[in-house]
Write a structure and sequence with these properties.
It is globular, with a radius of gyration of 17 Å. The chain has a two-stranded parallel sheet. It has 7 helices and 2 strands; from the N terminus they run H-H-H-E-H-H-E-H-H. The longest helix has 24 residues, at 80-103. It is mainly alpha-helical. Helices cover 50% and strands 7% of the residues.
């Protein structure tokens, strides 16, 4: 199971108020307890059904804008300050994922670390720098296969 970074990105909405606050606002301050509890509820429900859940650390958000507001979102998302907030937010989400895996090892196993795998890569993104290209998805599949194979699960790629 992996949270979608585009969903995480959409949780931080540029608007006039957020500009006055010097950046973006999103779940990073108020909903991390909710995020953690939602993840736990999901893995508990899957566990009750006999499903083994692996939680992956989400990849970095490198989105630079250009998909909304007639591309005016570039004024906000392209700045270094916002990119730093995206990175901090992703690391916080990944910290919650690690916390769930460490606190509930009978419910959730550690999946691939897509943050570490993709943080320094520039060859894996589509032009929007939010979605992966063929190379990125191939690396993602290989990382999942490695985790599952190391856990004794037979995987064919």
């Amino acid at each position: 199971m992996m949270l979608g970074t585009n969903d995480v990105c959409q949780s931080m909405v540029p608007d006039m108020i957020s500009r006055l606050l010097h950046g973006i606002v999103g779940y990073e301050d108020s909903a991390f307890i909710t995020l953690r509890e939602n993840i736990i509820a999901i893995v508990m429900a899957l566990h009750k059904k006999g499903i083994v859940t692996y939680l992956a650390r989400i990849p970095p958000i490198l989105y630079r804008g250009g998909l909304a507001f007639a591309q005016l979102d570039r004024l906000l998302f392209f700045t270094g300050k916002v990119q730093e907030k995206f990175d901090r937010y992703v690391r916080m989400v990944n910290g919650r994922i690690d916390e769930v895996c460490n606190s509930y090892p009978s419910l959730a196993r550690v999946g691939p670390d897509f943050y570490a795998l993709f943080k320094e890569r520039s060859d894996i993104w589509l032009k929007d720098r939010m979605h992966f290209n063929d190379i990125g998805y191939r690396l993602m599949a290989e990382a999942w296969a490695d985790v599952l194979t190391n856990d004794g699960i037979e995987v064919e790629i």
